[in-house]
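note to self — DONT lose this again. spent like an hour looking for the file last time. sequence + predicted structure for the chain T wanted, 437 res
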Amino acid sequence: MKFKYVSSTVALVGLLAASTAAFGQTVDVQQYWTSASESKAMHAIADEFKARGGKWIDSPSADFDAALAAATSRIAGGEPPTALLMTPNSAMRDLAGAGSLRNLNDLATEGGWQKQIPEIVWNKLNVDGNLVALPVGIHADNWLYYSKEVFSKYGIEEPKSLDEMFAVADKLKAAGVTAFAVGGEPWQEAMILWDLILAVGGPEYYNQLVVKRDPEAMKSPVVEQAFEMYRRISTYVDPSSPGRSWNDTTNMIINGKAGMQLMGDWARGEFIAAGKKPGEDFGCMIVPGKLGYQILVDVFVFPQNTDEDRVSGQTLLAKTIMDTKVEAKIAEVKGSIPSRLDVDTSSLDACAAKGVEALATPGVAVRFHRCAAGRPRRSCKRYRNAVLDRPVNDAEGGRRGPDIAPAERVIVTRASARRWPATIAWPASPPVGRHGL
């Protein structure tokens, strides 16, 4: 009888242990961070989550669009992911408006998160007054990276202005070097144009054009100047540009195959992943011109879930994401700066320090161009068309539209081209994957 009692007790303990393991804090994460640096950042979150007792199920997708499609299909089918990586765009607002996302107000109040997140970011995390998303680092897309090896070889100093940047490009081109490494994907090409609009016009003009949508801003010569620079950049790229991914393009700088790249600061994560050091192997600077900091973020949202295990996992993951040490680790490996203002940034590298300083400078930070005022996607598309699809004479003198602007503005409509030629084409709308804020 004693043996049976002991055996029964052991069996009961085993059942309880198994039950506890099954009822852990589980998250099934739909995400699209797949490059070397992005994977390290996701591992930083996952490793800390698991260290706190959680169970992590990774559901990676090739890109943002694929992740969103998979998640929305699962939500519609009654089997939602526990967490979804996305951007704070109209898709997020649609999900929140349909009641498909968990409200995080209670956790925000408990953690005092609002006072620790910059207002320009916080406002994009909320829908109808409810917190529905948590940021995983703050990026800016208007950075210029350059190869220290290439610059040193040709006796080139870091450019301090747009004119100097193009002088550098001319010198590299004359030496037979690809001056600008550009990935020939629509979102990469479009981003360059917006970077130039900000550099030429500055934050005040940019906000008038993009956020306030002032019709008078469309008439400014800033747009003309930015388009001309955009056209000019297209003359420095290599023949293999079309279709090349952003990280493969960054590798051209890493390997000394090109001089400069205009790209978001996630590119810095690729340099770091390759063992390169800022200031030694590569240089970084906010695109020269009028100082602006065009920020964007990736966020986690948490689809509504009836499984207590998954709800508990969501809570643990939310607290993990907002941990200051996790924020610092993401910034270290991915190229971003922390989403929280109370993170110790003293150990961040020289590039990140420039970003921290820019974000802290009043009037410098602006929202990323895509739907910056928070309007529906169709409204944003119509506005971009009105601002940017202003057809005029092309470089050869052929007619591409009504005579509404000076002939020297070398612009063709988006409808007439799918990628930028040597003259210039406004590319197709960029995907929303990296364009959320």
